[in-house]
Amino acid sequence: MSTFDEAFERFKDSSADLAREMKERASILVTENGDTIDSALEKVRDMAKDLTKGTYDDKIDKAHAAAKEQIHKLDKGQDPDGPSAVG
Predict the structure, then answer these.
(1) How far is 53 from 78, CA to CA, in rounded Å?
(2) C-alpha distances out from residue 60 to 35, 36, 66, Å
(3) Alpha-carbon distances, residue 63 vs 53, 58, 74, 84 (angstroms)
(4) Model pTM above 0.70
(5) DSSP per-residue codes, the chain
């Protein structure tokens, strides 16, 4: 194994550890602040609807639902599966 390959493997391992730690911290923050996050998501949804004057309400509602779903997955300690398809 070359020096580059060894360095890359160490980097990959440390990156995976960092990603796990970030997910755990995010999960804790979501659990501790779930009500605040839900309230903020609702305010953003309502403001977006007001600014677009109803033109994109269906898309805004889909985006809001997708965001809530991902936040609640973190709250339950599940792995969010990336952004949901919106549109």
Answers:
(1) 36
(2) 20, 20, 10
(3) 17, 9, 17, 8
(4) no
(5) --HHHHHHHHHHHHHHHHHHHHHHHHHHHHHHHHHHHHHHHHHHHHHHHHHHTTTTHHHHHHHHHHHHHHHHHHHTT----SPPP--
Largest CA distance in the chain: 60
Task: Give the 3-state secondary structure of 42-53.
Answer: HHHHHHHHHHHC
Segment 2-35, tens digit of pLDDT: 898 888 888 888 898 899 899 888 888 888 888 8
The 10s digit of each residue's pLDDT in 57-85 is: 999 999 999 999 888 887 776 665 554 44
Q: Are 60 and 48 in contact (CB under 8 A)?
A: yes
Report pLDDT for 6. Answer: 87
